[in-house]
Amino acid sequence: MKFFLKVILFAVFYSTIVSCSKENLVPQDIVLNDFVWKGLNAYYLHQEEIADLADVRFNSDNQLNAYLNTFTDYNALFSSLLISSDVKSTLIEDYTTIVDPESRAAFTNGLEFGIIADPSSDVDVLGYVTHILPNSDAANKIIARGDYFFAIDGIQLTRSNYEDILLSGSNSFALEMADFDGTITTPNLKTVLLEKQNYTYPTTFLDKIISVNGDNIGYLVYNNDFSNEYIVDLNNTFLSFKNQMVNKLILDLRYNILGGSSAHNVAELASMISEQNPDATLIKEEWNAKAQLWFLENQPDSLVTKVPKTVGESVNINSLNITDVYMILNGDNFTGSSSVELLINSLKPYINVHIIGNQTSGNNTGVITLYNSEDYDFPLRNETHTVALQPKVLSFLNKDDQTYENGFTPNIPLCENEDVLNLGVIGENSDPILNNILEYISTGVAVSNTNCNLNDFEYLYNSMDTQRVTNTGVVIKQNLPNPK
């Protein structure tokens, strides 16, 4: 996010345990344990809550080494030094596997679908189409959102076989379609031949302008992450919206995989959504007490992300001058990601952010990669091993010092699952979710659908679930002070 200047002295980190600094020779058999303890002692967000990470825990290198020698497994040491609720901090065995997100690609036929239990059977299941990927094999076939299928190549889909057939089966097959009234499944003799192909996902699934009572509403269905791979193309989409005088935005993330996002990318997207003075603050950082104190005394500007005006160093951001953004967060039980929550929190002081979906999770922390070097940076790393740490190191706040550890409550709650009997067409008023938002924009009245799953369907699977990236927090990248 921001690249700090190197410093020679970071005395506050080890003011009480000077003798434990990295300049002392570490016994070879505890090099990894030493790295784990000192990295977490320096930067772990919850360092003050862990007794064994306290600066006064050890009076000498010998005491620290004796403690570290009690752990034969550095993974066990790492786990023991985290608070019990921390599921985001991770230890990476091989840092060469850490790569920047690339263009999303897959070997797929383009069919995205869900599976429910057939209400008329204890064994059979029924597939329904949630959406078709643009320019895929399925996009060239007569099949659409809301269609149903019950068999493949003459084999009835059941609870026990649908995963093997649909996910691990043949690269080409014939879907056997059916009509479904909520109770009875009736084969309709229609078949759809599908074949998996190498596929690269487009940046946007759909973008269009919807006019409602004089408002030009930009509608953007975005299914990818917010990484550098897509940010320039997103900026071009916002240029199109800007040229068409968009004054409200609907950001539809119901089929979004998320992940792969940095705080800087989130700030760039926030700047696209709402035009603000470049001196305006979007994001503030709060590290553990001793790191925070050092930054406040030496680099206070490094704790603040201002409104960026360019993507990268040279491409001007196309900012919309809007007052309202509407974010559809839910997929099936999907509560949004840390990057979306950071986007919401950053925008809240400036514009009206309307949340449509489920209560969000409260992922308000950032992680950083620490390498075993004097400054925890990559170039001077210890090359005798490939272990790296990715601990939680900070909490995010907005310009008004608001954070979101308890998540965000939606303006319009949605059912946990879309109604398989009434999916409509994405981007059209027939889509109940979009239609509800357009009514909300038009009338100002938020109407929630509380009549969820009236048919008591058993939802067994959704193809988007396996594509969503594990949410470990927003990634930040920065050179850290040397803690000697």
Strand content: 15-25%
What is the CATH homologous superfamily assignment of one domain? 2-enoyl-CoA Hydratase, Chain A, domain 1
* CATH C-level class of one domain: Alpha Beta
Mean pLDDT: 90
What is the rounded Rg? Answer: 25 Å
CATH architecture of one domain: Alpha-Beta Complex
Instruction: Give a quick account of the main beta sheet: strands, pairing sense, barrel closure.
Output: 7 strands, antiparallel
The proportion of residues forming helix, as a percent range, comes to 10-25%
Please count the helical segments: 9
The first-to-last residue Cα distance is 24 Å
* Low-confidence residue ranges: 1-23
Which geometry do the CA atoms define?
A: globular
CATH topology of one domain: 2-enoyl-CoA Hydratase, Chain A, domain 1
Structural class computed from helices and strand pairing:
alpha+beta
How many beta-strand runs? Answer: 24
Molecular structure report:
The protein is of the alpha+beta class. Among the domains are: 105-200, PDZ domain (Pdz3 Domain); 206-368 and 399-449, 2-enoyl-CoA Hydratase, Chain A, domain 1 (Alpha-Beta Complex). The protein is 19% helix and 24% strand. The chain has helices at residues 31-43, 61-68, 74-80, 162-167, 228-243, 263-273, 289-298, 338-347, 432-443; strands at residues 90-92, 105-108, 111-117, 125-132, 148-152, 155-156, 172-180, 185-195, 197-200, 206-212, 215-221, 248-252, 281-287, 304-306, 310-311, 315-316, 324-328, 352-357, 365-367, 388-390, 392-397, 412-413, 459-462, 474-475. The longest helix is centred in the middle third of the chain and has 16 residues, at 228-243. It is globular and about 80 Å long.
